[in-house]
Amino acid sequence: MVNTKRGLVLGATAVALTAVTVTGAGLHLSQSQAFFQESPKELVDEVWQIINQYYVDGTFGGVDWTGIRQEYLDQRDYENKEEAYVAIREMLEELEDPYTRFMDPQEFRNMQIDTSGELTGVGIQLTKDEEKDQLIVIAPIEDTPAFQAGIQARDVITKIDGRSTEGMDINTAVNLIRGPVGKGVILTIEREGEKETDYLIIRDRIEIHPVRYSRKDTAAGEIGYIRLTQFNANASLEMREAIRDLEERDVAGYILDLRSNPGGLLQASVQIASMWIDEGTIVSTVNRKGVMDTQEARGRALTDKPLVVLVDGGSASASEILSGALQDKERALLVGTKTFGKGLVQSVRGLGDGSGLAVTIAKYLTPLGRDINKLGIEPDISKELTEEERKELRGDRTLIGTERDPQYSTALEVLEQEIAKANSQQAGTVNK
C-alpha cells in the first residue's frame, strides 16, 4: 500500500551532505506508521507503486516501468530485506536520476537528523554527475572540517580512503565518509588545472547556525551584511532576527551573501523570501500533471530597503529559489557568477521497515516561469574571482565579506548606487 501522507520537503535537488543531509530546495517527508510486517517483496512493490504514482516524468525517462515491475516482482523471490534493498536500488538506477534514491533504515535516520541542523561528519555537500560518473562537491559548509581543510565547490572526489569512487553512488560515498568523531578520512580530490591531492579530514560534530550578520560603515552609511550558509531548520528564525536587529539600527541597505549555499528546506527558502518580498509569487512547483503548488508572499516583508545578493557556482537549490525570486520580482540585484543549476523537488517517504525513499516529484519555476535546472541563474552583474583570489579567501575566511573580497566589494559598489537612487527618488517624492 502506498503511503500518501505529506511531510518534509527538501527540494530543489537532493544532494547529499556528508555531514550528512539530503539537500536542495525541497524535500517532502512522509512517514509510514504501521510496523513493517509485509514480506520483502511487498517492500519492493511499495517502492514501485510510489515511483509509478509520483515520479516527475510520466514516461519514466523512457523506461518500461511496468516491465520493471514484472521483472522484480513476478520473476524474483527475496529471502530477506537486504536482497529487497539491492533490488530496489537496481530498479531506481533504471531511471538514471541520482536524486531518486533508496535509503536503508540507518541512512534514513541520518537524513532526518541532518535536516534538523545538527550534523556529524566532515561538512560537504555531494552530488553525482551521472554523465561523467563523478562525485562532485557542491560546496563545503563553513567552519567545518572540510572547509578548514580546503575542500572547494566543484571538486571531484576520486577516492575515499584509497577506494575509487568510480561507479559509486552517493549513499555509499556518504557511508564511507561518515564515521566516529575524531577519526580521519582521506579524500582524494581532482581539481581543474591541478594534480590529484589527498586531504586528511578529521570528522567532527557540526552544529550549524546558518545566519551571520554585521553592520558595516560605507560611503552610503551603515549597511547590513547577512551571510546565509544553508536553509536548515534554524535558517528562517535566525534570518528574521538578523533583519529585525539591523532594521532597528536603521541600516540603509543590505547585502545578502548566498555564495556556496547548497540549499536545504523548501519552506525555509519561501519563508525567507517573504521577509524581502511583500507580495506575489515566490516559486511554483510543477509535476507531471502541471502546476502542483504556488508559494506566495503575503504582505509581511520586513524591509523594502535596497538589496544586493551575492551568488556563485556553489549557490544551489533553495538558494536559487530565493535569488531567482528576488531577481524576477526586481527586488534585488544579483552579483557574482552563475549559480549551480538545481531545480528539482524530492519527496522523501518513510517505508514500513524504517527505510526511506527520495523520489523526484516536481521541478520548480521562478516567478517568471524560468526553469533553471542544469542552467543556473545568471547574475545581473558578473564578477569572477581569479584563482589567486579564491586561494586567499579560502586560506583566510575572515576576509569574506570585507574589502579584500572582490565580489563583496563589487556588491557594495552596486548597493551604494542603489541606495543613492532610492534616496533621490524619496527626495523627489517629498518635494512633490
Describe this structure in words.
With 432 residues, the protein is an alpha+beta fold. The chain has a domain at 211-342 and 367-427: 2-enoyl-CoA Hydratase, Chain A, domain 1, CATH 3.90.226.10. It has eleven helices and 23 strands. The protein has helices spanning 40-54, 65-74, 81-93, 105-114, 145-149, 170-177, 235-248, 266-274, 318-328, 387-395, 406-431, and strands at residues 9-10, 15-17, 22-23, 27-30, 101-103, 118-121, 124-129, 134-140, 156-160, 163-164, 184-190, 197-202, 204-207, 211-218, 221-228, 254-257, 279-287, 290-298, 307-311, 333-336, 344-350, 356-365, 381-382.
CATH superfamily of the domain at 211-342 and 367-427: 2-enoyl-CoA Hydratase, Chain A, domain 1
Structural class: alpha+beta
Helix coverage percent? 25-40%
Name the CATH class of the domain at 211-342 and 367-427.
Alpha Beta
Number of strands: 23
End-to-end gap: 67 Å
Q: How does the major sheet shape up?
A: 8 strands, antiparallel
Share of β-strand residues: 25-35%
Instruction: Find the CATH topology of the domain at 211-342 and 367-427.
Output: 2-enoyl-CoA Hydratase, Chain A, domain 1
Instruction: From the alpha carbons, calculate the radius of gyration and give it in angstroms.
Output: 22 Å
Uncertain ranges? 1-37
What would you say about this model in short?
This protein has helices at 40-54, 65-74, 81-93, 105-114, 145-149, 170-177, 235-248, 266-274, 318-328, 387-395, 406-431, and strands spanning 9-10, 15-17, 22-23, 27-30, 101-103, 118-121, 124-129, 134-140, 156-160, 163-164, 184-190, 197-202, 204-207, 211-218, 221-228, 254-257, 279-287, 290-298, 307-311, 333-336, 344-350, 356-365, 381-382. The chain is α+β, with helices and mostly antiparallel strands and 432 residues long.
